[in-house]
Amino acid sequence: FIQMLRGAKKRDVLQLLRRAPQETRPFLVEVAVATQSVDSLAALSDFLDFSKEPKSLLEKFLYAAAFSPRPSEELLHLVLDKLDGKQLAPEIWETGVVAVGSLVGKLCQQKLCGLQVVERGVETILRGLRGAEEEPEVVIYLLALGNAVLPETIPTLLEHAEDGPTAVTAAATAALQRFPAPHIRSKVKRAMRRIFHQNRKSYDKTCRLAAAEILLDNHPSPMDVINILLATSQMEAELATFLLLKVQNSL
Q: What's an example GO cellular component term for this entry (predicted)?
C-alpha cells in the first residue's frame, strides 16, 4: 500500500482519504504519513482539518508523525502548520508539541539541524516553554525537548531541573537522561549532585534517583560513587537497593 501511494498524485490520495469509510481513515492517514511523498503529505494537509476532524484521527496522524523512523522536512512542516495559531483540544496540542520534538530530534540525527523548518520547530518549543504559565504546560514542552535531544537546550533543562516544582524537575531530569555521555559534562554533573544530595532544597525521590542515574551512567568519579553509596544509608530500602544494584552494575 505504501509503495502504491508513493506513485500516486495528490488528487488521488486526497480522493482516497475523502471517500474512505470512517473506520478505515486512521489506517489510511497512517499509511500516507509513512509514504512521506510530497503528494501524500500535500493531500494530508488538505484533508486534515484540526478544527473539525475527530480527535482520534488527529492523534493517529500525530503519533504516526512522531514515530516515523526517518521523517522528512515536509512532514515537520505539515505538523507545525497544523498546530500554528489554532485553538486545539488540550490532548491534540500536547501530542502535537511532543511530536514536534520527536521530529526535530530525528531530523537532527540525519544531520539536518540547519534546515529552516527544524529551527522553526526548536523555536516553537522554546517560545512555548518561555510563555508557559501552568505546570502541565511546562512539562509538555520539557518532554518535547527531551525528544529533540539538542545540546544547546541543556542549560534550559538544568534550570528547570533545579528550580522547578516536582513534576517539572522530573520531566527535566528525564530529558537530560536521554543525552549521550559526551554532553553530560561537569556543569550537568554538578547540578545532578545538588539535586541528589538536596543541597539547595528537598527533591522528590524520583528526581533524586534520575540525578543519581545520570551521574552513574556517565563516567562516574570515585567520589560520586562513594557519596551515592553513603547516601543510601539514609534512604528507604527500595530506593537504596536500586542504587546499590546500579553501582554494582557500573563496577
A: Golgi apparatus
